[in-house]
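We emphasize that the prediction below concerns an isolated chain of 336 residues; any contacts that depend on oligomerization or on bound cofactors are therefore not represented. The input was used exactly as deposited, without trimming of termini.
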Amino acid sequence: MSVTEPDLAEVPAPGTILAGKYEVVGVLGKGGMGVVIEARHLRLNQNVALKLLLPSVRAMGDTVVRFEREARAAARLQSPHVVRILDVDALDDGRPFMVMERLRGHELEAEMKARGPLPVEEAVGYILQACAAMAVAHRMGIVHRDLKPSNFFLTDVDEHGTSSSAKPKTKMLKVFDFGISKLAGDVATSVTATTSAFGTPLYMSPEQVRSVKHVDARTDIWSLGVILYEMLAGTPPFKEPSATALLVAIATDPPVPIQKLRPDVPAPLASAVMRALEKDPDVRFADVRELAAAIRPFGPPADDPAMAAVSAELAGVSGDIGSTPAARPSRRRTVA
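Result of the prediction step, given as a token string:
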């Protein structure tokens, strides 16, 4: 659903003080369920981002539960590649809002739309950072279930304390929107059975198509494979005219080998992408660290500041993941 003018009329106006400590600056973005506004913490004199539900969707049954699920999941994750949740509170009318770190940049989706296929090293770098985030989540029993380019935010590393002399070739990527995540031991799973929480069809795994509830961390590996494929090829592996046809294709059709669409993709990297897209979860990588180890030789150099958390996650993980080990490719960049 879209955000209507009456909805926006109920968004706190600039200058409004929320919860006695957040002064509204303005709207940063809006979507079907909520709006993100910039605010200033009055005591800390620090700008933050506030995400709040719109009045029209608050009454839609599971939306408040999803909202609280997102806050609960993200707040548990301590990773430089997950958007930090700083606080959770409510407006006077009872609508909940969460306070997040204020980031400057844009979503990966916008980057892909603006540039088309990305250079191999850059595309791999973004997936490596997402793998670092999801390795932390999966260890805590959290499966995202809705990984997609619009849930990846690109920002400058310099904003987070890195000196300008070490400016990275790759932007810092942060994962957000854990609204339909699955938490181990969470008994309130009925929320994820609704259409609104089903996930985004283009990036859904075959097992998620069959059952939104009975998935594990390997469904996130599939989604990461789809995103990497799309960044390299300029098109997703499955593209159909209707949602129904798309779901059937995901469940039954083999994807076009990525080297047919992007011949310069190194063979070991192409094999890793296609393994992430295996229909059978048991044939995919066992976890995101194995996926990361398989594609790491084709990513940014180890001294790139954006790769620090990736290097820490991969300590002790072999890069020989069911395929022939590849030599480090040339540092020469290929621009698509």
